Amino acid sequence: MAIEVASLPLPASADPSKFVDFGKEVKGIDPGNLTDDQFKEIQELLYKHDALLFRDCSLSPEQQYALTKRFDPASENYGHGNNKTGSTVKSILHPDLKTIPRVPQVQLIGNGTVYNHEGLATANLKHPSHTTFHKTQVSQIDEDAGITRYYRWHIDAALYDLSPPKVTTLYGIHVPHGKRQTIRYDDGTGDELEVPLGTTAFVSGKTMFDLLSPELKSLAVRTKVKYAPHPYVWMAPARAMPTGLGIESEGRELPLEELPPWEESKLKVLPVLWKNPVTGNLHFQVHPCGVMELLVEPLPQGAKREGALYPDGAHLTDIKEVRELLYKMQRPAIAPSLVYPHDWKEKDLVLFHNRGVLHSVVGAFTKEQVRAFHQCNLAASDDPTGPTADDIKKYA
Ligand SMILES: [Fe+2]
Fold first, then answer.
1. How far is CA 56 from CA 8, 147, 349, in A?
2. Are residues 223 and 150 located together in one domain of the fold?
3. What is the distance in A from the centroid of ligand 1 to the CA of 358?
4. Any idea where the TauD/TfdA-like domain is (predicted)?
5. Can you give the CATH number for the domain in which 65 is found?
6. Which terminus of the chain has a smaller tally of CB atoms within 10 A, N or C?
């Protein structure tokens, strides 16, 4: 049977003109048993459309790991490393992940208590919620009325020592059904988005770049981000913005000298824009919570200086300034009409181009609502590539 490709079911809130290339449902193929030719086709589809949905599939943890690895055969370890104890014990990611003993690259994530699951006798899962991460919280009355927030917009990546995974695979095993919720942005805009319970929200990094003014495009194309050492430990005492798009600057981050041992050479300095290996498009790929500094290259010779930001280049180390600049560039792309909130069904497999989208956990479950997903991504064998000389010439 030939591979059949259909559009993703967009909610009424989405602006279809902004989702022409984003997301496809793939039919007529078993993602756990792809031939080489089929895999090549899937790989190309993923880089062209950034998210692929397979419905009603059966996928063992072994098959999920093998599928994920095929996108980067030299990769081997989970995106945050296979050993999540020791130096990362204080990391904010620690409570959210349980490793499948047989296949340590695959994590069990979700909510509630799961018994006898793939070699885990009992797993107590907790769906991450804004209440433990944001500076402010939705009131109990509003929460009872179905109001919620994005938890944290991010790229799946350790952002220290390891390279950002190319692809993440998410497989829904138990999906609780419940009332839809409304994401409130709580940032003074009045923005809201109604979503299915426990949705995963995606936005396109390409759209994030395309929306920018020429001045901000010029800045983005010239800028690299320096991430903090052990960023998830560093940010653990800090609190996030109500949109989940970065951290409030309150000076709460762990001082660098109190972090687990780290080396300058293992810090991640990555371009703001990552080049799509198939389409050549530029995707604005910044994990705003982990950023410490920005390094801006001067304008290239011959570029128009009028109105240009940091025409002579800059090394921005004031964290408040860094965060405000990034927020200004990233916030437009999480507008309600630009978000794809996936409506999970049991046995859904979603593959997403982790170097082309940002995503967020959403919503809150009760303890009784049991959710079990398998997630896999692998620290990549290389770092993402930034803009080419031609891109810089075009946008700077
Ligand atoms: Fe994630």
1. 15, 30, 8
2. no
3. 8
4. 22-375
5. 3.60.130
6. N
How far is residue 310's CA from residue 313's CA, in Å, rounded to a whole number?
A: 5
Distance (angstroms) between ligand 1 centre and the Cα of 369 equals 20
CA 351 / ligand 1 centre spacing (Å): 12
Q: Are 377 and 71 in contact (CB under 8 A)?
A: no
168 and 249 together in one domain: no
In degrees and rounded to multiples of 5, residue 153 shows phi and psi of -75, 130
Of 393, 351, 323, the residue nearest 43 (C-alpha):
351
- For 157-199, strand residue ranges (E) read 167-174, 181-184, 192-195
Percent helix / strand / coil, the chain, rounded to 5: 25, 30, 45
Q: Is 219 found in the same domain as 166?
A: no
62 and 172 in a common domain: yes
By CB atoms closer than 10 A (0-12, 13-18, 19+), residue 144 is exposed
What's the gap in Å between 166 CA and the centre of ligand 1?
Answer: 12
Q: Indicate the pLDDT class of residue 86, thresholds 50, 70 and 90.
A: very low
Domain span holding position 351:
4-206+336-377
Ligand 1 centroid – CA 360 distance (Å): 7
Residue 395, H or E segment: helix 389-395
Rounded distance from Cα 156 to ligand 1 centre (Å): 5
Residues 28 and 154 reside in one and the same domain: yes
Do 145 and 105 fall within a single domain?
yes
Domains held by the chain: number: 2
pTM for the complete prediction?
A: 0.96
- In tens, the pLDDT along 197-249 reads 999 999 999 999 999 999 999 999 999 999 999 999 999 999 999 999 999 99
Q: Are 291 and 323 in contact (CB under 8 A)?
A: yes
303 CA distance to ligand 1 middle (Å): 38
Strand partners, 294: 225, 316
For 145-188, what is each residue's pLDDT tens digit? 999 999 999 999 999 999 999 999 999 999 998 999 999 999 99
Ligand 1 midpoint to CA 154 (Å): 6
